[in-house]
TrEMBL record:
Protein name: GDP-mannose 4,6-dehydratase
GO molecular function terms attached to this record: GDP-mannose 4,6-dehydratase activity; NADP+ binding
GO biological process, one term: 'de novo' GDP-L-fucose biosynthetic process
Keywords noted in UniProt: Lyase, NADP, Nodulation, Plasmid
Reactions performed catalytically: GDP-alpha-D-mannose = GDP-4-dehydro-alpha-D-rhamnose + H2O
Enzyme Commission number(s) from the entry: 4.2.1.47
Signal peptide start and end residues: none
Cofactors, names only: NADP(+)
Gene from which the chain derives: gmd
Pfam families: GDP_Man_Dehyd
InterPro entries on file: GDP_Man_deHydtase, NAD(P)-bd_dom, NAD(P)-bd_dom_sf
């Protein structure tokens, strides 16, 4: 039986990856931060909490990392732990650099010292492309990060590549474009949209307040993406791969898809911070804009080219952005019932 260790097991991807690996017959271990009230809700939601083995773990603590990795002795390590919300990274830039950047080095160096044969996956991100230098973005597109989060992830990406090249380690990075699900954090725009619209559809009156509706993202379903992570570690040689759908959608259209899934007929009017959306069927104001949700530097357009993952790994996403919006909106609507 193969053993996997997942950092960030309590997060969205950690939950889906745990389920996926358990179904493949793995013994699954995960690192959980010591906080006053354990947060394992997502592992419960996917029904695997009793099947995974939890260890106290923090990416900022090198000795803890060494001890846990020596105790578990995994065949594969998936480093999903991060301060993952771009918006907060301007408020927590040093923490983002430490956990998302140096945290990767702490794991790689522990593995290099004690278990160099362990296969390693790094959760790199399309946010590294930031102010995009090519359309679509592939493994060879130059990085131009636009947030402390993105800058820290570039370090994590290059140190993974460097340990692969310096020490021959099987260390791969997945450059994953945005992937969402009903388990997505409530501060990310997709989940914020589906949760607020589900409340409105249930009779609530709180208007959804958003920032930049013109930004475009390449959104896929998290369940498809964790499979790609595992596929990377099954290759004879480690490498870097983009996982994306190849379709980009403005935030405004994601609102439209989610609203339509809940039986609304949204009409957008106005421009900039004056823009609003109203449900034509009920006359209810559903969206307003506030400066508060604009970012100091924006990533305007992301669209990935997943050709390498498709041809070398045989990976491809199954869920379209409209199906994703519908899945998330219905899940939030049902949960509120
Ligand atoms: P989540 O925010 O849902 O999960 C992040 C996880 O990291 C949580 O388990 C969190 O623990 C943990 N974590 C945070 N700080 C630390 C720390 N100091 N030590 C150990 N663990 C920590 O993110 P996702 O599941 O969506 O993303 C997984 C990874 O993929 C992240 O690295 C993210 O940056 C990256 N990524 C995600 C994309 C996406 O669209 N989802 C796109 C590209 C990359 P806790 O529960 O205690 O907060
Ligand atoms: P990101 O791509 O990792 O930053 O994922 P997010 O879901 O946090 O943001 C995606 C895009 O939505 C960014 O371009 C944001 O500027 C934009 N956006 C617009 N309004 C909001 C909002 O209210 N919250 C968030 N999180 N993002 C918003």
């Amino acid at each position: 039986m193969k053993k996997a260790f997942i950092t960030g097991i309590t997060g969205q991807d950690g939950a889906y990856l745990s389920k996926f690996l358990l179904e493949k017959g793995y013994e699954v271990h995960g690192g959980v931060r010591r906080i006053s009230q354990p947060e394992t809700v997502r592992l419960e939601q996917v029904g695997v909490l009793k099947d995974v083995i939890i260890h106290d773990f923090d990416l900022s603590e090198p000795y803890n990392i060494v001890r846990v990795l020596q105790t578990v002795a995994p065949d594969e390590v998936y480093n999903l732990g991060a301060q993952s919300f771009v918006g907060s990274s301007w408020d927590l830039p040093v923490y983002a650099a430490d956990v998302n950047g140096i945290g990767v080095l702490r794991i790689l160096d522990a593995l290099r010292t004690f278990a160099p044969q362990t296969r390693f996956y790094q959760a790199s991100t399309s946010e590294m492309f930031g102010l995009v230098q090519a359309v679509p973005q592939s493994e060879t597109t130059r990085f131009y990060p636009r947030s402390p989060y993105g800058v820290a992830k570039v370090y994590g990406h290059y140190i993974t590549m460097n340990y692969r090249e310096s020490f021959g380690m099987h260390a791969s990075s997945g450059i994953l474009f945005n992937h969402e699900s009903p388990l997505r954090g409530k501060e990310f725009v997709t989940r914020k949209i589906t949760l607020a619209l589900a409340r409105l559809a249930r009779g609530g009156t709180d208007t959804l307040v958003l920032g930049n509706l013109d930004a475009k993202r390449d959104w896929g379903f998290a369940g498809d993406y964790v499979k790609g992570m595992w596929m990377m570690l099954q290759q004879p040689e480690a490498d870097d791969y983009v996982l994306a759908t190849g379709v980009t959608t403005p935030i405004r259209d994601f609102v439209r898809f989610a609203a339509e899934a809940l039986g609304m007929d949204p009409v957008f009017e106005g421009e900039g911070v004056e823009e609003t959306a109203t449900d034509r069927k009920t006359g209810k104001r559903i969206v307003e804009i506030s400066e508060k949700f604009f970012r100091p530097a924006e990533v305007d357009l992301l669209i990935g080219d997943p050709t390498k993952a498709r041809t070398r790994l045989g990976w491809q996403p199954e869920v379209t952005v409209r199906q994703l919006a519908e899945m998330m909106a219905k899940s939030d609507y049902d949960a509120l019932g």
